Amino acid sequence: MSGALRGLRVIEMGQLLAGPFCGQLLGDMGADVIKVEPPGAGDPMRDWGQGSEKVQWEVIARNKRSVSANLRVPEGQALVRRLIATADVVIENFKPGTMEKWGLGPDRLLAEQPALIIARMSGYGQTGPYSDRAGFGGIGEAMGGWRYIVGEPDRPPSRMGVSIGDTLTATYGCMGILAALHHRTATGEGQVIDAALYESVLQVMEGLVPEYDRMGLIRERSGSILTGIAPSNVYTCKDGEYMIGANKDSLWKRLATAMGRPELGDDPRYATHLARGENQLELDALINAWTRTLTVDEVDALMIAHSIPAGRVYRAPEMIADPHFQAREAIIEVETERYGPLKMQGAFPKFSATPGGVRRPAPSQVGQHNAEIYGELLGIGGDELAAMAAAGVV
What we know:
Elements: E1 9-12, H1 18-28, E2 32-37, H2 56-60, E3 64-68, H3 74-84, E4 89-92, H4 98-101, H5 106-112, E5 117-122, H6 137-143, H7 146-149, H8 164-187, E6 191-196, H9 197-203, H10 208-215, E7 232-237, E8 240-245, H11 249-258, H12 273-278, H13 280-291, H14 296-305, E9 310-312, H15 316-321, H16 323-327, E10 331-336, E11 340-345, H17 370-378, H18 382-390
Parallel strand pairs: 1-2, 1-4, 2-3, 4-5, 5-6
Antiparallel strand pairs: 7-8, 8-9, 10-11
């Protein structure tokens, strides 16, 4: 279980979600990720998550080693520059200008190390009139168009139950790093990847902008449906909820047959994509009236028998119990330092020749690997490291 990125060294700087999630993705694929944390409390992600035990850290910090360094003092900055000199990639998600203030800006780093790849994640990007503003994932979701279209039409915008703006930015940052590695293989040149939160969200907004540009159409909140795409919704059964996606002419005909009403497949109100979109609410009510007469198991069996895309609406308990999740190791169990065996999502995507995975649990202590990394990579001995710790450098 070495991973496709075995041999790649990544210095992860920054905190909370975007930078660390990018580091998690690279680490899952085999990279050696060294996380730089401020001495003391470390990354605030250590205390994030719901419930009394903050286990979210165990996912986002897996496959990483932790060193501490005080980037607000010259000695800490110099120490991290030496560490970066041993690396292939730097990830940072500080407010633009912060790395430059610390003497760790791309101009200086690339002058010293031309093959270095630097991924920068921020609210608005490194350039433009808003670049110096503070930005969190939720702000990027709002500016990028996501928040306005999520929720019920008669209520204020909603949000997803996860930090999608941050994780999208991290994913695009990771994709940029992999593309930059390909370029470096061909040319030997490093470069800077500039990933903005709002632009990462904008990338997944489908036709939102061209629809307005061409037709003056402004997408509005539409609740559980995607306007004009029908039938595709969650429907109520006797004992729960069930998702059906039959928004294609042939699929709709099969669904009508499964419902015992094959004549609806050719009904002019529903026979075509445009007709179903125009009669979307009426169609959903018709399907919902049918699913209410059956259990989830009964509807599921009919959907499978008629080859209709559909599925149960899962929470964590259903995911853990599902045999398909188990067969593909979508959820794995990791022996963590703080909590013992802990179930979490597995490494993704799947690789046929160089599978990724969890090689080490999240570091339980800030600077847990100081002696190992500063000693092996930089030749700093125990006495020198102890003096740095006493001076507040690490």
